[in-house]
Amino acid sequence: MHFLKRVSFLLISSLFLFSCGKEADELDLIVAPEFEVKYSFFAAGHTYGNPAVPSFGLYEPFMNAVPYINQNENIDFGALTGDIVIWSNIRRWDSVLFDLTKFIMPVKTIPGNHDRDYDFYNYIDSLGYSSFLHKGDLFIQLNPKQWTIKGDQLNFLRENIEQHKNNVNNIFIFVHELLWWSPKNSYNKITINYHGRYRDSTNYWTTVEPFLDSVRNDVYLIAGDVGGTDYSDPYMYHQDGNIHYVASGMGGAVADNFIIIDVLIDGSVKFNIMDIMSGEPINLGGFENYQLPN
Q1: Domain count within the chain
Q2: Per residue in 226-245, is it b (16+ CB within 10 Å) or e — as a string?
Q3: Residues sharing a CB contact under 8 Å with residue 173, sequence separation 6 or more, in sequence order
Q4: More confident: 249 or 123
Q5: ∠99-104-107 over CA atoms, to 5°?
Q6: Contact 70, 96 (CB under 8 A)
Q7: CA distances from 245 to 36, 74, 209, 221 (A)
Q8: Structural domain includes residue 91
């Protein structure tokens, strides 16, 4: 299965119905079942918002989208892909937890560099990484240290994928940093929020990527370290073999967004970029026309 699926129509069925004298409006009801949504989830990065005027709780333009999210009956859960608070302290986290009560579905929290201070582990899984199965897909939440996945966490990643790879369709991996980014590779024109001094220390390409590349599943790495400033890129997408690199974020007040991911009955995946700049979210479509900056 790949991100862009060949579209096919039930032509034979349609011709049969025409021969039976069915009306045209009845034909509109015929939908190939493989194009139906099995379930959806959302991913939102950098949800503390503007670094210059950080929110107590989640970024207000994102919170304005909560009624829209709650009305989507396909969305089973959400994920905040890091930098949920600007300072990891009780006041900030309690404000976030209050805002999360406004969602009618569970919302996962994935640590970012701003979230990893002393109070962080009082509010999420004690290790900062975990996994779960959902409707035939595997989800893994990671907590890289200094852009690196190693030790017990690397073993956790490998063991989960080895255990489930033959029984699931897709593998979704939530991280905060764009671990695949480097000033020396083809992603270097993507302007991210923060790369710090660790950008060249990642073991993604030497250790993690070869393992992900070895499985038959489509693997989606979904990060949230873009869009936080008016100069950073608001989102990115690139497919390399079976691995899909995805990032989105908010706070820069230029192209603030989150993404809704639809998983279809046939296992294919559809992305919806949701612009939150004007109150009611606007669906900008997917990544079909996205090109990496030159």
Answers
A1: 1
A2: bbbbeebbbbbbbeeebbbb
A3: 139, 140, 141, 142, 157, 219, 220, 221, 222
A4: 249
A5: 65
A6: no
A7: 24, 23, 11, 5
A8: yes
Q: What tokens were used for 27?
A: 């034909």
Q: Given the structure tokens 């129509």, which residue do they identify?
A: 9
Question: For the segment 160-198, what is each residue's pLDDT rounded down to a tens digit?
Answer: 999 999 999 999 999 999 999 998 899 999 999 976 666
Separation CA 12–CA 115 (nearest Å): 55
Residue 291 lies in a domain: no
* Strand-pair category, 137-141 with 170-174: parallel
Which residue type occupies 99? D
Asked whether residue 7 is domain-assigned, the answer is no
Distances (CA, A) of 35 to 43, 269, 282: 22, 10, 22
Tokens of 1: 């299965």
Residue 191 lies in a domain: yes
